[in-house]
Structures
1.
Amino acid sequence: MIVDCHVHLYGEREEVTANTDELLKYADRLGIEKLIASMGPQLCQQPDAERLELDNQYVSAAMAHAPDRLEGLVYASPGQVDKSLELMERYIAGGPMKGVKLWVSRRCSEAACDPIADYAAELQVAILQHAFFKVGGNYPGESTPVDLVELAARHPDVEFLMAHCGGNWEQGIRAVCHQPNISVDLCGGDPEAGQTEYAVALLGAERVLYGSDASGRSLASQLAKVIGAEIRDQDRRLILGDNAVRMFGL
């Protein structure tokens, strides 16, 4: 099984089924059986409670349209803690979603993230955290891999998945390699040779997951990072699907 652990269904809000079908069309060509979606049809750095509600409804509708193919993560925000906890209760404790997605509203090292992580520990689900080392500087609330290490160290019972290998993947992977409850996904960025091999060498294949960041990136270019990597076949199987199946309870 190939599982894409990191996708978004960009487009118009009222076209959620069409947006889902369009992405699945390309997934079918590549043999990607499961996709894990989060956030809404357009990006919003500082979502209010209403926006979080609508974005999670959007992903829920996509899941209902393709229940055998699409899984979901609750889009939470440390800027809206009460609403985030309410959504986690509704869609994880009482529903089909498999984990939590945090983006850029606050740096994840801030204390406002702790209630979300505490509830994730109670629910025994993982947190997918966007993190970047950017040459031009991060957004005001955008986490770096160092921020994620701080959060993960405070919550050793939670599994964290660092998106994008931290942007600058050599630096990002090195920053988190000593923190055992952080894994990385390979999504986003150019399909550079050596990224997957480097992650496996420093983290072990059990802490590396395939993701695409579609629709912002193509499924195929990101899949090529794993298919073309010079790694063992058993490690490739872990990265392409087995690790995501375990982490998100698929």
2.
Amino acid sequence: MSRVRRLAAICIGICAAGMAHALDYKTVPGAGGVPLNVVEAGDKTKPGILLIHGFAQSQNSFQAQLTSPELTAAYHLVAFDLRGHGNSGKPWRGEDYKDSKLWADDVLAVMDATGLKKPTVVGWSYGGFVVANFIEHHGTARIGGVMLVGSAAGLLEANFAPPAPDVAKMMAENRARQVSGDITQNMQGAKGSVGFLTAKPGDAAWQDLAAAGNLLLLPYVRTAMAGRSLDNRAVLPKINVPTVVMRGSADGVITQAQAEDLTKAIKGAKLSVIDGAGHSPFYETPARFNTELAAFAKANAK
């Protein structure tokens, strides 16, 4: 093969690889017509995985999954920005955040628009509460399995680990900055929140995206969401699909005891603890996380 033909073959291969893992963005009307920013990756003919991010974050949290050659070769991955978050719409009225059915219907709209049939649904942190909302209103007929990551999802009486007094003080000060009308205070609050997401500081790109996620959750949305009920204990008996409860061993949000209690409370659920990871194991230990996710999704697709 000539040098020119070899170079051409290399270029074609690179282009093909890039196309195979390209991110496909679209806007989907959610409940009440709220525009939801949705991204798809992978093979749309393969089993689905739906990734739902946490509070004050976005679909960008899942870059290590959406760009994984292994996952995108075998699965149709979908993520979206929750209402009020990221590049999704930010309704002005407080009632547009209160009703759990709004959040449930947003998920259903994304599933319908992307053709997800019975996906494995991953709910990280606040995303776990949204998964519970979906099951509350739409059951589990459309779900192949559930993975709750760093989330008790409102399914237990105690849903969050009580922070140490000094940490609680820092968090309260940070929350005050995040709802301030002063954008410089918002920026400080956004940067201050990033450290709670991982056991060790993430790289610069991660910190930038995490801080951006915080800034894009505007003060009036935070205030509206603060009045939303997060008690999903009545949903617990309705979870009748394969479930994994995943926790980083250094997670400061959900305790080991809470993760164990939740695993026992959900029939047939399995517990996965990722050593050394904090609240974001999909970012901190992506190889381990992606391997477990792929195995779980494969089992659910049978």
